[in-house]
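--- STAGE predict ---
source: upstream dedup step, 1 unique chain passed
mode: sequence only
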Amino acid sequence: MVEVVWNNFEDLFPEIKSVIEKSVFVAIDTEFTGLYTTDASQPSLFDDPETRYKKLKKTASQFLISQFGLTAFVQLEEDPNKYIAHAFNFFLYPHSFGPIDCRFLSQASSLEFLCQHNFDFNKFIYSGVPYLNEDQATLLCKYHQNGDLYTSFQSQTLRIIDENIVDSCANLEEWLLSAQDGDEIELRPGSCQAQYLFLEELKRRFTGIKCRVLNQSKLTVTKLPTVNGCKPDVNSDHLSQEQEKTLQAMVGFSRIFHVLTACKKPLVGHNVLTDLMLTYEKFYKPLPESFKDFKLEISKLFPLIYDTKFIAFEMRKNPALSQCNFFDDTNLEKLHAALSSNDAQFFALFAPSIPLDEKCFRYLEEKLSHEAGYDSFLSGFVFLRMAHILAFKSSKRRIEGPVPFSKFLRVLKQFENLVQLSRATVQHVNLSGPDPPSIRPQWLYVSSKLKSKPLVARTLAQEFAAFGSVDVKILDSQHALVAVAQHRKAKDVLQSFRRHKLLNVRPYNSFLDSSELKVACWCCGTALVLSGAAIFLWKSLR
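--- STAGE serialize ---
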C-alpha cells in the first residue's frame, strides 16, 4: 500500500496516473464519516430502487469520504497470468478556500467503527488531500479570474491564517536583509488558502524576488540579483502562475477521478453502490434527483462496473459450483480467505497470480480490513479469482493453461453493471438498463384485535424476529405492514399467527388495504352522495 496524503500527492500523481492507464481494471473502496442521516434513512425491505437511491443520496450529500482506496491491476506482458496490484490509500479532506467551505455530518457509531480499525484522524484532517467537484472548481476559477478571491478572503479568512501570512512576510523581510543574490529560502505559509494569500501579499509588498510553489503547503523564494543597482520588480504574471498552481492543488484528488473517467477501465467494488454515489457527488457533480438519471450519468462515466458481492451471490447459486463452499459467506475478507486457499487453487487450475507491488509491503505484513486501500485490493483479488473459476468451470473444453483476461470479461458479461442492493424489494439493480422485478414475498397486513391496544413498531418487530429478517411499517394505530425477506418465512408467519390472541395477520392486498385508495374511494363516495343530494334538492325546488 502506498499512503497518499496532502504533502506527497503531487509527487505521486504521475505514478498513479501511469498505473491506472496501464491497468486492465481498477478496484475501489471508500470509508466515510456516517451511514444514515436519520433512522428513517436506514435500509428497509420496503425500499424499491428509487426509494433506496433517495436515502443514499442524503448520505452522499451530507457525509464525507474519509479514505479512498484504489488498486490498479497491471497484467505483465512477459507473464499474462500475473497481475501486479498497485494499491493506494488516500486520506481525503475538503479544504476551505475562498467561497468554498464544506459543511458535513458525522455519525458517532461510524467514527467509533473507524477508531476500532485504527483510523488516523490526524492524517484525515491535517494531511487529507483536498478535492473539488466540477461546480466548485468552476466557482473558484471564476472568482480567481475576476479578482474576487482576495476580497472573499478578506471578508472571511480566519485570524490564524492572517497571522501565518504576517509571520511569513516578517521572516522573508528579515531574511532579505542578509541574503545574497541567488539565495533561496523555503517558507510554509500553511494551507492552500494561506499560500494563495501569501502570494498576493508578495505582489503588493516585495520586489527583487522570485517564487516557486513546491506543494500545497510549501514554496521557495529566491533573491534576484540587482541590475544597474536597482532591484528588479516582482513579475506579477509569474506570481499569478504560481497562484494558479495553488488553485490546481485544490482540485487535488478530483484529478484522479478525471483519469479514471478518461481511461474508462472496468471498475470493480464490493457492494459498490454507495461508493459510486459518494464518488459522483464529491468529485463530479451533485447527484441527480432520480435514480434513472443517475444510472444514465454513471454509465457514461464508467461503462463497465462489477460488484463482487453480487457476483459471489450469483455464483453461490451456480449448479456447476455446488461442490465448493468458497461463496458461502460473501463478506469481503471471508471471500478473500476462501479464494486464496489451497482448496481454491486446486479447484480451478492455473489460477492467476496476484502479487502486491513491492511498495505495498504493509499489506503483505498485516491484514488491515476496513482500510480503504486494503479493501480495494481484496475486491480486485476476489474479482480475478471468481472470474477464473467461472471461466474454468464454464469452459466446454479442458483448460490446459492460463485463461486470458479477455475471456474473464466474456464469462462475466452476465454481471456487467449489476450491483447488489441489500435489504430491499429487489436484490440488485441494473446501472445500464431496467431493474429486475421484485422476487420478495408479498407484504403481510397486520391489524390489532383490540382497539384499546395500539400497534407499536418495536413490539411488532420483536414478535416477528423469530422469522428472520423483517421490517415493520406502521400505517395507523390499528394497522401495520410487515415485509419478510424469504417466501418460506412468510408462510411460517401466516401459519404461526393464525390463532394469535392480539393480532390478525394476512397477505397484503394492494387494492383493499391501500390507505391512499381508501381515501380516494371515500372522497369519491362523498362526492357522489353530495352530488346526488344536490340533484334531489334542485328537483325539489323546481
